[in-house]
């Protein structure tokens, strides 16, 4: 074994020992078991992105793990009944609440909650006799309650996708066809219902939206995430900022900067590649914005049908 | 313009988000979603920086994971208390917070700010103290002026000098006022006889008077301008106030009577003089008439003096050229003058003054017979001669 690996193993062993002492109730799990779990977590979150992470970083990372929650889950994974009882007792309400938020009715929520416990426990058995379940994926980095909510959310989406594949609506079919055909100017958001919108305006709108989509893709990851959270996921600025870990005011300033960057990028594309003139671009911006303002309500209502499946968790 | 541009981009982005085009970009990441642990760790800010960058890149293009993360953020209450630190938020203890409060980065700004606030507080306090003190001082000064406006009379701008004048009187302009000849000496002696010490200590003994020589020698020497008598101490009781008013009224009546008497005497002497002049061949001008006029003037002045000394009140009044003037501080003010009236300011010796007295010779009389500042109402206009 290389020195580096030995060093990491030693760090994980020491970290596991300290973690067990920190936990309120370690449920009798051994240091070796915890060491294995800690090692996998360090690999996943630290060494995967930086193989040369320092000892201090590894030490601090292990100290940041939720000791009590991790010991509980490891104990559940190893079949400690007391741990399972505590898990259900302490987090049953959390799971039910998350299931209710992800479901449209009480019956579905109850079904979903029951599915969660089955998923956590695992219906199949591994080679070593331990049940396969999602418990092995809890790292202790975040809180156990949050992890359970995330599990419920993901399971709800998976179940919904399974159900939606079975019954495809006419709108979904049309949507899939449109996407398969590539970009279609008529599918873009300029309101076809408005008879005053000329064909040239529709075409200009389509070109502009293509340029805008491209510009968004070329944004930095954090900027793109902010745009998606605020405009596409309809989060409030405060919530979008919280996801990014910044204050609302910071998010607002970033968004203003992003607007400027996007506009410059769109202008560059339209003028440089599509042969538009600057005045044409300026006019198109203002005209399209006016049209968007007057007709955005029906657009959102229409696209809401397509987006609802994605947004069901959030509703 | 920038605001408008931002609004346009905002509307365009909303329009784009409302359409189906955005979904196509996110279909690619369907197979490689974040697991619940990663999403939860990201939502709670428990992901190391390098891993976080990876997750951000995924979330930016994966609506599904983004939805779950958004929900986690909202339900965990992190949205209500966002911070600017996205990586490894550690639980902060009291000591950690205290350390942060007294960190160099904070102290760098906090110490000057606290110092500035302290300095401003001290200056404000000192200013307030000064205001209070000056207010009190003003009040005392004002009350003294009201009670005894002439008690601390300053030397006039038109100085008065005579030999043997009491101390405190200016002798700087003695020379211009000297007159030659026996008459002048006699005049002076007469004047001296009416002099009194202007100092406050001598006020009580006799009504103080000061001498004042007219600016022009050709004009008769009129009355010595008596020094303003200090007012008696005010009576504390209301009854004393009533008595005072009654006394003042009596004095005024007596004064008017005396003034009338003086005017009658003056008129009589003038008419006698005119009669003598007509009957004799004595020249109307010259040294013979001048002494007589001076004598007449002196007599009239003495009558006025009597009026004023008899009065002995707080307010001093004089009658010049048929107009009544009252003394207020260093100024002689026409009794027909009201403070709200617009006033023409004229300085003695100025071109304006010379033009004025050329047009209105009577104003010259007022200006020359009354020293110091004179406010006179003449032909409907108020003039302030100083």
Radius of gyration of chain B: 46 Å
Question: Which structural class best describes the helix and strand composition of chain B?
Answer: alpha/beta
Give the N-terminus to C-terminus distance of chain A in angstroms.
51 Å
Head-to-tail CA distance between termini of chain B: 64 Å
What do these coordinates show?
The complex is a heterodimer of chains A (315) and B (386). Chain A has 315 residues and is mainly α. Chain A is built from 13 helices and no strands. In chain A, helix 5 crosses helix 7 and helix 6 packs across helix 7. Chain B has 14 helices and 6 strands. In chain B, helix 11 runs antiparallel to helix 12. Chain B is elongated and about 130 Å long. At the A-B interface, helix 3, helix 7, helix 8, helix 9 and helix 10 of A face helix 1, helix 2, helix 3, helix 4 and helix 5 of B.
What's the short version?
With 315 residues, chain A is mainly α.
Write the layout of secondary structure elements.
The complex is a heterodimer of chains A (315) and B (386).
Chain A: H1 3-22, H2 31-47, H3 55-63, H4 67-77, H5 81-102, H6 106-121, H7 144-166, H8 170-180, H9 199-217, H10 221-232, H11 237-244, H12 248-272, H13 278-311
Chain B: H1 2-18, H2 21-26, H3 36-43, H4 49-61, H5 63-76, H6 94-101, H7 104-147, H8 174-177, H9 181-193, H10 200-203, H11 238-279, H12 289-311, E1 317-320, E2 323-328, E3 331-334, E4 343-346, H13 351-359, H14 361-369, E5 373-378, E6 381-385
Parallel strand pairs in B: 3-5, 4-6
Antiparallel strand pairs in B: 1-2, 2-3, 5-6
Helix pairs in contact in B: 3-5, 4-5, 11-12, 13-14
């Amino acid at each position: 074994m290389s020195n580096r690996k030995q060093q990491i193993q030693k760090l994980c062993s020491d970290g596991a020992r300290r973690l067990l002492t920190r936990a309120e109730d370690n449920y009798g799990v051994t240091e070796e078991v915890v060491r294995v779990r800690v090692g996998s977590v360090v690999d996943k979150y630290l060494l995967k992105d930086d193989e040369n992470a320092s000892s201090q970083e590894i030490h601090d990372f292990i100290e940041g793990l939720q000791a009590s929650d991790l010991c509980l889950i490891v104990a559940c994974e190893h079949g400690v009944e007391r741990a399972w009882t505590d898990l259900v007792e302490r987090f049953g309400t959390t799971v039910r609440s998350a299931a209710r938020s992800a479901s449209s009715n009480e019956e579905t929520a109850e079904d979903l909650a029951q599915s969660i416990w089955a998923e956590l426990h695992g219906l199949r058995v591994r080679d070593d006799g331990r049940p396969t379940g999602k418990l092995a994926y809890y790292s202790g980095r975040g809180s156990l309650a949050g992890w359970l909510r995330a599990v419920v959310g993901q399971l709800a989406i998976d179940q919904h996708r399974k159900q939606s594949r079975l019954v495809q609506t006419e709108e979904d079919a049309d949507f899939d066809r449109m996407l398969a055909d590539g970009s279609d100017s008529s599918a873009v958001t300029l309101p076809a219902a408005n008879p005053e919108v000329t064909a040239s305006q529709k075409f200009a709108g389509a070109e502009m939206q293509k340029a805008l989509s491209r510009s968004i893709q070329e944004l930095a990851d954090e900027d793109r995430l902010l745009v998606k959270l605020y405009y596409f996921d309809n989060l409030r600025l405060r919530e979008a900022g919280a996801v990014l870990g910044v204050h609302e005011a910071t998010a607002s300033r970033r968004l203003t900067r992003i607007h400027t960057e996007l506009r410059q990028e769109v202008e560059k594309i339209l003028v440089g590649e599509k042969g538009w003139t600057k005045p044409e671009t300026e006019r198109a911006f203002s005209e399209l914005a006016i049209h968007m303002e007057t007709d955005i309500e029906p657009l959102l209502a229409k696209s809401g049908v397509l987006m609802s499946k994605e947004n069901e968790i959030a509703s | 313009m920038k605001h408008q541009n931002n609004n346009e981009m905002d509307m365009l982005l909303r329009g784009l988000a409302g359409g189906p085009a955005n979904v196509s970009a996110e279909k690619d990441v369907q197979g490689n979603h974040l697991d619940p642990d990663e999403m939860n760790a990201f939502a709670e800010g428990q992901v190391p920086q390098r891993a976080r960058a990876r997750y951000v890149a995924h979330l930016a293009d994966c609506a599904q994971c983004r939805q779950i993360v958004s929900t986690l953020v909202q339900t965990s209450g992190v949205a209500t208390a966002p911070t600017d630190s996205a990586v490894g938020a550690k639980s902060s203890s009291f000591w950690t917070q205290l350390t942060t409060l007294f960190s160099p980065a904070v102290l760098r700004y906090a110490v000057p700010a606290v110092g500035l606030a302290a300095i401003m507080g001290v200056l404000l306090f000192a200013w307030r103290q000064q205001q209070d003190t000056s207010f009190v001082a003003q009040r005392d000064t004002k009350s003294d002026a009201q009670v005894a406006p002439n008690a601390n009379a300053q030397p006039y701008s038109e100085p008065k000098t005579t030999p043997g004048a009491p101390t405190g009187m200016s002798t700087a302009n003695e020379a211009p006022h000297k007159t030659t000849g026996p008459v002048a000496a006699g005049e002076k002696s007469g004047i001296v006889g009416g002099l009194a010490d202007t100092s406050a200590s001598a006020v009580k003994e006799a009504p103080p008077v000061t001498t004042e020589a007219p600016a022009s020698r050709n004009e008769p020497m009129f009355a010595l301008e008596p020094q303003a008598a200090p007012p008696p101490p005010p009576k504390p009781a209301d009854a004393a106030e009533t008595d005072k008013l009654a006394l003042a009224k009596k004095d005024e009546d007596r004064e008017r009577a005396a003034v009338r008497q003086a005017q009658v005497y003056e008129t009589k002497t003038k008419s006698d003089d005119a009669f003598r002049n007509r009957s004799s061949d004595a020249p109307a001008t010259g040294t013979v008439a001048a002494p007589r006029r001076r004598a007449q003037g002196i007599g009239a002045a003495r009558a006025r003096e009597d009026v004023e000394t008899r009065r002995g009140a707080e307010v001093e009044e004089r009658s010049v050229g048929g107009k009544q003037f009252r003394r207020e501080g260093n100024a002689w003010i026409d009794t027909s003058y009201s403070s709200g009236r617009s006033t023409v300011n004229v300085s003695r010796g100025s071109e304006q003054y010379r033009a004025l007295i050329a047009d209105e010779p009577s104003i010259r009389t007022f200006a020359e017979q009354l020293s110091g500042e004179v406010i006179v109402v003449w032909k409907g206009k108020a003039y302030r001669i100083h």
